[in-house]
Amino acid sequence: MNEKITEFRDYRAKMNEKILAANNKVMKRIYNIDTNTYMEGALSTKVKEMMGLVSSMVLRCDDCVKYHLEKCHEQGVTTEELFEIFAVANLVGGTIVIPHTRRAVEYWEALQEEVLNPSGV
Amino acid sequence: MNEKITEFRDYRAKMNEKILAANNKVMKRIYNIDTNTYMEGALSTKVKEMMGLVSSMVLRCDDCVKYHLEKCHEQGVTTEELFEIFAVANLVGGTIVIPHTRRAVEYWEALQEEVLNPSGV
Amino acid sequence: MNEKITEFRDYRAKMNEKILAANNKVMKRIYNIDTNTYMEGALSTKVKEMMGLVSSMVLRCDDCVKYHLEKCHEQGVTTEELFEIFAVANLVGGTIVIPHTRRAVEYWEALQEEVLNPSGV
Amino acid sequence: MNEKITEFRDYRAKMNEKILAANNKVMKRIYNIDTNTYMEGALSTKVKEMMGLVSSMVLRCDDCVKYHLEKCHEQGVTTEELFEIFAVANLVGGTIVIPHTRRAVEYWEALQEEVLNPSGV
Amino acid sequence: MNEKITEFRDYRAKMNEKILAANNKVMKRIYNIDTNTYMEGALSTKVKEMMGLVSSMVLRCDDCVKYHLEKCHEQGVTTEELFEIFAVANLVGGTIVIPHTRRAVEYWEALQEEVLNPSGV
Amino acid sequence: MNEKITEFRDYRAKMNEKILAANNKVMKRIYNIDTNTYMEGALSTKVKEMMGLVSSMVLRCDDCVKYHLEKCHEQGVTTEELFEIFAVANLVGGTIVIPHTRRAVEYWEALQEEVLNPSGV
């Protein structure tokens, strides 16, 4: 598997575990709501994940972008659709979003390769 | 018609006209792209407008929120769907988004009344 | 009572009620956590409210500033302490915070007058 | 004189006075540095004020925009130059800057009228 | 000593020196005020550093977070208190703050280990 | 040539190519406007690039800062002028801009060395 992907996932999982282990009630609830927000509802999970992605881009958080790219990928978002999300983010958020778009494209390619070659051989 | 709506639309139209009349090529092109971004494509205009709304909320721009609320309303977004957009925005962007959500709810109500009573009598 | 105070409180209460009435589970939980976060814990409510205020200032949300000013006032924050919070906010957040500081000072004065003259006569 | 201008200036002056009267050393120094930053140096005051304006626009602070518009006006910035500043701000900062541009254009017009008709008759 | 800590401190010290050596009066004064802001006053240094930390988190600046984590650690902030600061930051600033919280937890652990094993052997 | 410079330029060029190859009309136009915005006009390219730099600093985007540092360097901005841009950015944007200033100084030094020793030997 692509090193960028495993590195992101492992660090994320390890540190989230530590945050939850600290047993702060508010932090635990925020994590909990986070899961609920993107569930199927009046809007589909796919649409919600696309909204999570566009929000992460205009707020310029690379890790949040990676996370929502993974979720969008799971939800079957196509590369053409992805670039329309990028278009909204770069228009509304400005060219300041471009460097994050570059890194998003790189991560998206890694996610696509992972599907074609899951064992990473 | 609701005063809040007409006030917003009139000021917006009047000032946009002045901006375009200044004849700055870059500004004119930005306005032009803005129209193109939300056109039907791989993603529907409805989904794009919802992404425009969520971006405006996390970036906390009341006028942009109003504009995209109008567009979402035109696209048939339901109140239940709207609150799921608010949920993503308030989760990702934090409670700092709540005051903008309050004003968004007020504007949404005005848009709904406008449909029921277009002449504002 | 000062008109600025009642206007803020009434609008806030009215719109919060509408948001909760919409019955979106995520929004309701966010409101719920909000209450919990500032409760006495390892840190006092006073310290947490001061942190809520400084966060609202650097993120430049006037309504959030007003809300936390009210809470700080209830917690017995003195004017001298308040200006030390403003100092941190203006240093870390930059002079872009100054206009919000001006409005915060105005609201703080209204809160102080309210104590001296609660009936607003 | 235009009401928007006097209202802005009066409120700003009155509240700044109160902030300085509170005698917080850090706040006073920040105000002091603010004056120094825009003085003639390796770069002219005009260029620095244009940079103050573009920063205020991308950070989306209407009062800061007004302040730097006044200073740019004093420094002889032309309307054509102004729109090139707006172009940079709207490109880098995104369409989220447009509503602030609308209000900036309105204030700029007021500043221009003030010159033509200083007594406001 | 933990490599992450020394790397951060060394780079910070080296570059701050260069910035001050450039002899720009405004930059030097900003550095100077920075020291003054967190001194004991009406509020304790501990409370001010906690406010510096929460501001850095909602503004999402990892290096600023590291710096204030060091100061909070020096001031005897406990891990339980720290998570209550994180709670305020993640509530007010939203889940966009989570990745910064993950990195903050990692740095906090390094600071704690440093105390137990100062020579880093 | 300095490794930091080549790494930045190569990654930037490679990923921009991929973004443009995706053939999204909006993204292509945004790239196109980007070029136009900084052309000589009522304001010089030098002044516009300085405004691009100060905007990137207050919005705290390291890659955008690097890009505009390169352009400012090409336009003959002196180190003394550069620090006056930093002064505006750190004053308006706050101490949260300091870590980005540290990295900007490092990149500026690399750009200066590149001129003295273009082959990097």
Question: Topology, please?
Answer:
The structure is a homohexamer of 121-residue chains.
Chain A: H1 3-21, H2 25-37, H3 45-58, H4 62-74, H5 79-93, H6 98-116
Helix pairs in contact in A: 3-4, 3-5, 4-6
What would your notes on this structure say?
Six copies of one chain form a homohexamer. Chain A has helices spanning 3-21, 25-37, 45-58, 62-74, 79-93, 98-116. Chain A is mainly α. Chain A has a single domain, classed as Up-down Bundle (AhpD-like). In chain A, helix 3 (45-58) runs antiparallel to helix 4 (62-74), helix 3 packs across helix 5 (79-93) and helix 4 (62-74) packs parallel to helix 6. Chains in contact: A-B, A-C, A-D, A-E, A-F, B-C, B-D, B-E, B-F, C-D, C-E, C-F, D-E, D-F, E-F. Chains C and E meet through helix 2, helix 3 and helix 5 of C and helix 2, helix 3 and helix 5 of E.
Number of strands of chain A: 0
Query: What count of helical segments of chain A does DSSP give?
Result: 6
Oligomer: homohexamer
Q: Please mark out the parts of chain A with pLDDT under 50 across 5 or more consecutive residues, or reply none.
A: none
- In CATH terms, the superfamily of chain A is AhpD-like
Q: Ends of chain A: how far apart?
A: 7 Å
- In the CATH scheme, the class of chain A would be Mainly Alpha
Q: Estimate nothing, just give the exact number of structural domains of chain A.
A: 1
Strand residue content of chain A: under 5%
As a percent range, the share of helical residues of chain A equals over 70%
Biggest sheet layout of chain A: none
- CA radius of gyration of chain A is 15 Å
